[in-house]
Design a protein that fits this description.
The protein is built from 12 helices and 7 strands. By secondary structure, the chain is α/β, with parallel strands linked by helices. It has a single domain, classed as Rossmann fold (3-Layer(aba) Sandwich), CATH 3.40.50. The strands form 2 sheets. Strands 5-4-6-7 form a 4-stranded parallel β-sheet. Strands 1-2-3 form a 3-stranded antiparallel β-sheet, covered by helices on one side. A hairpin with a 3-residue loop joins strand 2 and strand 3. The protein is globular. It starts with 7 loop residues before the first strand and ends in an 8-residue tail after the last helix. It comes from Papilio machaon. One of its GO terms (molecular function) is sulfotransferase activity.
Length: 269
C-alpha cells in the first residue's frame, strides 16, 4: 500500500510567481504542492487532502491525463461504451456525468456552470456523494496527488484507470489556447512554452506526470503493467504545433523531450 504522503503547500519562487500572476491577472494565483513540485491554483489547498483520502471503488472508471491530451473526447467514448451508447444521456453536462474531481480549484472565477446547475458543495463532494454508479471520474492530477486507494498492492479491489497522452508540442498549443479562452491568460505563446518546459506551468511538471506510470513497474513488479487495466489509449498526432512553433522553438522542444524520454521506451511522433 502506498505510504500516506503529507501534502505541503508553499509560495512559488519570486520569478515564477510574478510571471503567473501577470499571465493570469490574479495575485498569488498558484501554489506549489509537494510531493511532486506540482503547481496548482491556490484553491486546491481546500480540497487536496479530501481527494487524497477519498474511497475508490472497484467499479470506478478513472480517466487520468495531463490537461489537453484529448481526455474529454476519450471520456465521452468511454462513458458511451459503458452506457450502451446512450446518446440522449450523453447530452447532459459532462461535468455532472463524469466530473473532473479537482474542478472546484480550477473553475473559481465565474465559469462554474456545472456548479450553478446542479452541484452542491465541491467537485469532490459530487464524486463522493452524488455520482451514479459505476462512477466515471476524470482527473488531471499527477500520481502523487491521486487518491491513495487508486493503486494498492494488498489484494484489494482496483478500479479501471485509463491514461491518455499526447505529443507535448500539440498539447502545449491546445493548453495555451484553453488558458486564454477559459482563464483569460495574458501572455505570448513563447512565454507559455517557456514555463511549460521549465515545469512551471499549472499541473506541471509534465514529464513527471507522464513518466510516473513507470513507478507502477518499479513498485509492483514487471508483470504488473501486463495485469492492470492501466493503459495509454491515445497519442495525438494532429501536428497543429507546426503552425505556432519556430524552427528554434521546435528544436528546443525536441531536445527537452529527448532528455526526459531517454531510457523510458516511450516516444511521441
Amino acid at each position: 500500500m502506498r505510504t500516506k504522503p503529507v501534502l505541503t503547500f508553499s509560495k512559488l519562487d519570486e520569478e515564477t510567481g510574478e510571471m503567473l500572476d501577470r499571465m493570469f491577472e490574479k495575485k498569488d494565483c498558484m501554489v506549489e504542492i509537494n510531493p511532486g513540485r506540482v503547481i496548482l491554483p491556490a484553491d486546491y489547498m481546500s480540497i487536496g487532502q479530501d481527494i487524497l483520502d477519498m474511497e475508490v471503488l472497484e467499479d470506478d472508471v478513472w480517466m487520468c491525463s495531463y490537461p489537453r491530451t484529448g481526455s474529454t473526447w476519450a471520456q465521452e467514448m468511454v462513458w458511451l461504451i459503458g452506457h450502451d451508447l446512450d446518446y440522449e444521456g450523453a447530452k447532459s453536462l459532462q461535468q455532472i456525468r463524469c466530473p473532473l474531481v479537482e474542478l472546484s480549484c480550477i473553475m473559481v472565477d465565474g465559469h462554474a456552470q456545472w456548479h450553478e446547475e446542479s452541484v452542491r458543495g465541491t467537485s469532490v463532494d459530487l464524486v463522493k456523494h452524488r455520482l451514479a454508479h459505476p462512477r466515471y471520474i476524470r482527473s488531471h492530477l499527477p500520481w502523487d496527488l491521486l487518491p491513495l486507494d487508486i493503486q494498492r498492492d494488498d489484494g484489494s479491489a482496483k478500479p479501471k484507470v485509463i491514461y491518455t497522452s499526447r505529443n507535448p508540442k500539440d498539447m502545449v498549443v491546445s493548453y495555451y489556447h484553453y488558458c486564454i479562452l477559459v482563464h483569460g491568460l495574458k501572455g505570448t505563446f513563447e512565454e507559455f512554452c517557456d514555463i511549460f518546459m521549465r515545469d512551471r506551468a499549472p499541473f506541471g511538471p509534465v514529464w513527471n506526470h507522464i513518466l510516473e506510470l513507470r513507478y507502477l513497474e518499479k513498485s509492483f513488479g514487471r508483470n504488473y503493467l501486463e495485469q492492470t487495466d492501466l493503459r495509454f489509449i491515445r497519442k495525438g498526432e494532429i501536428g497543429d504545433w507546426k503552425n505556432y512553433m519556430s524552427d528554434d522553438l521546435s528544436r528546443r522542444f525536441d531536445d527537452w523531450a529527448e532528455r526526459h524520454l531517454k531510457g523510458t521506451e516511450l516516444s511521441f511522433e
